[in-house]
Design brief:
The complex is a heterodimer of chains A (308) and B (253). Chain A folds into two domains: 5-222, 3-Layer(aba) Sandwich (Rossmann fold), CATH 3.40.50; 226-294, 2-Layer Sandwich (Alpha-Beta Plaits). Chain A contains ten helices and 14 strands. Chain A has helices spanning 44-52, 73-78, 95-105, 112-121, 137-149, 167-182, 194-200, 218-225, 272-281, 296-307, and strands at 5-13, 19-28, 33-37, 59-64, 67-68, 80-83, 155-159, 186-191, 203-208, 211-217, 227-234, 250-252, 258-264, 286-293. The two termini of chain B are 25 Å apart. The chains are: A alpha/beta (308), B mainly alpha (253). At the A-B interface, helix 2 and helix 3 of A face helix 1 and helix 4 of B. Bound molecules: adenosine-5'-diphosphate (ADP) and magnesium ion.
Chain lengths: 308, 253
């Protein structure tokens, strides 16, 4: 299947001379949820802004549904909705007029039924006639989402959607994101919270210093880079690991009450069954066993460290 | 063309005007009345007439010009500056809209407000003097051309301005003095010869003169010269806008 967004060697150097994006190439699949993960200043907002037409790329091309974002900007922008990072929103207009304004900007015919449903889904319907300046931060964020969805886009960009957002809105937001995905909308979100990427994304792209370090399916990323650990709680404290077990990558806890076996899920070699068998053979008795898997956070920290 | 977008931008800009209708109308009505009381009644009483036109009537076109020049500029410049300042411009930049459509929406709204304003001023004036408009078509054409040209000019200033101070500078420190010195409240023939020559470098003179001619066939320069000057100014603004359009000047990084 052709990618819905195809980014090819995209570069952005700001007027200050700062290189915010360095040769980014990335294909985004239709219907997926892609999380762009990176620390502050990594270039996430710049990347989104370039695709949406807010920042002019310095080099490289981007196509959306096969159309070039510069030459065919009308067709590409029509199908994109953007929720910006900052709460940039008017003050004196009402919720209802601002969503209608957004819909009109994107050239869509009036559709009150759709917009009413949208406001209901976002728990904004009772605020319909309120002025924007009277809304709380969380409510403003919801309005921004409503504006971004007002023209029924096929692609939705969420730039740091949960920064400074309360638990309830966060939950609602994920519910909306999942619902949109189910209806075929492609979602690209940026975050510097790893749990967020872990929670919702199908694929994760890691971006740092304007470079895209890698893009992987979340499961694959965790599997290929993630180390697993098997921890065995021993019945009796031991001082050293028996000779017969030195072939395995075992580590004894400082107190000598547990051994940890660290392994890479992709690596060939001894499997867990072997390890457990050998441990029993060596005469060690264990009372408990648990397996832990490294989180995206560990992976991320490792990656960024490696590059630095 | 994304006509729906032009429409919503236009209507959105006009909404504020209707919402604050009282201020929108009250302030020009009051200032016009003040000008008539001060210039027309107090000073005008000691000036018989200028080229056969009573002084009160004579200042009507200049007074109208003063308001629409400053208001066109401040409405249009503020209209585009504000979303730039607050960041809400992101939505316009990411919409399937060309610069040209954005321009029509904002400039159209600013020019419309100025036209309404001109009507309010003329109606107010009619309470003080008996209005006389010899060439209504010319009058309307001058009015529309001026509103559009100066709204365009304001749009350019709004894009250029990096802060609120700059936004104020042009209407306040440049346009207002030019209007006062451009023969709005007197005929330049009343000036010493040297100052008459100097005044010919003031572009506002040509606007006021042409506009006044359409009222009572009294002008400082010929109507053709006036029309040419305003068209040149309109052309210059369009050229600047076209250049801004090509380069994305101050809109996109
Ligand atoms: N308009 C600008 N001019 C100059 N530098 C900028 C501009 N906008 C962003 N930057 C710089 O580009 C880098 C990336 O910014 P951004 O894309 O906002 O990062 P992120 O969204 O990942 O936090 C930052 O170092 C930022 O300072
Ligand atoms: Mg950002």
């Amino acid at each position: 299947m052709n990618p819905i967004i195809s980014i090819d060697n995209l570069c952005k150097t700001y007027d200050t001379g700062f290189e915010a994006l360095k040769n980014i190439s990335l294909d985004i699949k239709e219907g997926e949820i892609l999380a762009l993960l990176g620390p502050n200043g990594a270039g996430k907002t710049t990347l989104i802004s370039a695709i949406c037409g807010i920042v002019s790329p310095s080099a490289g091309t981007v196509t959306v549904a096969g159309k070039d974002i510069i030459n065919d900007f009308r067709q590409t922008r029509e199908i994109i909705g953007l929720v910006p990072q900052e709460l940039t929103i008017g003050a004196f207009e009402t919720v209802w007029s601002t969503v209608n304004f957004s819909r009109g900007l994107f050239g869509c015919k009036k559709n009150e039924a759709y917009l009413e449903q949208l406001l209901k889904d976002l728990s904004l319907f009772d605020k319909k006639n309120d002025e924007l300046r009277a809304l709380s931060g969380g409510m403003k964020r919801r309005v921004l989402i409503a504006k971004a969805l007002s023209h029924e886009p096929k692609i939705l960009f969420l730039d740091e959607p949960t920064a400074g957002v309360d638990v309830e809105l966060r939950k609602d937001m994920w519910a909306i994101v999942r619902k949109l995905r189910a209806s075929g909308v492609t979602i690209i979100l940026t975050t510097h919270y790893i749990e967020e990427a872990e929670e919702i994304a199908d694929r994760v792209g890691i971006i740092n210093n304007g470079e895209l370090l890698l893009v992987e399916t979340k499961d694959h990323l965790m599997a290929s880079l993630g180390k697993k650990q098997l921890i065995l709680e021993l019945n009796e404290v031991i001082e050293t690991i028996p000779e017969s077990l030195t072939q395995f990558n075992l580590e004894l806890s400082p107190k000598g009450s547990s051994v940890t076996y660290t392994y890479d899920t992709t690596e060939e070699g001894a499997n867990i069954a072997d390890v457990i068998h050998s441990i029993s053979e060596a005469g060690l008795v264990f009372s408990d066993l648990k397996i832990s898997q490294s989180s995206l956070e560990d992976i991320f920290v490792d990656l960024v460290k490696e590059v630095a | 063309m994304n006509f729906r977008a032009i429409k919503v931008i236009y209507l959105n800009e006009m909404t504020r005007f209707w919402q604050t209708l009282f201020q929108s109308i009250a302030s020009p009505v009051i200032s016009t009345a003040l000008y008539f009381i001060v210039f027309g009644a107090a000073i005008g009483a000691s000036i018989d007439s200028i080229e056969g036109v009573s002084y009160g009537l004579f200042i009507v076109p200049g007074l109208t010009m003063l308001s629409i020049l400053t208001q066109s500029i401040s409405n249009a410049s503020f209209g585009i500056f504000f979303p730039k300042f607050t960041g809400t411009i992101y939505e316009i930049l990411s919409a399937p809209l060309s610069f040209f459509e954005v321009l029509i929406g904002y400039v159209g709204a600013a020019a419309s407000k100025s036209l309404i304003l001109a009507a309010v001023i003329l109606i107010t004036a009619s309470f003080f003097v008996e209005l006389q408009i010899d060439h209504p078509i010319w009058m309307l054409s001058f009015l529309v051309l001026t509103c559009i040209t100066f709204s365009l000019f304001g749009f350019i200033i709004g894009l250029w301005a990096g802060n609120f101070e700059k936004l104020q500078v042009v209407p306040l420190l440049i346009v207002t003095p030019l209007v006062f010195l451009g023969g709005s409240f007197y005929s330049i023939s009343m000036l010493p010869e040297f100052w008459q020559k100097v005044t010919l470098f003031n572009p506002v003179l040509y606007l006021v003169s042409g506009f006044r001619w359409s009222f009572f066939e009294v002008s400082d320069v010929s109507i053709g010269t006036s029309l040419t000057m305003i068209l040149i100014f309109l052309g210059a603004c369009m050229a600047i806008v076209a250049w801004m359009f090509k380069t994305g000047y101050r809109l996109k990084q």
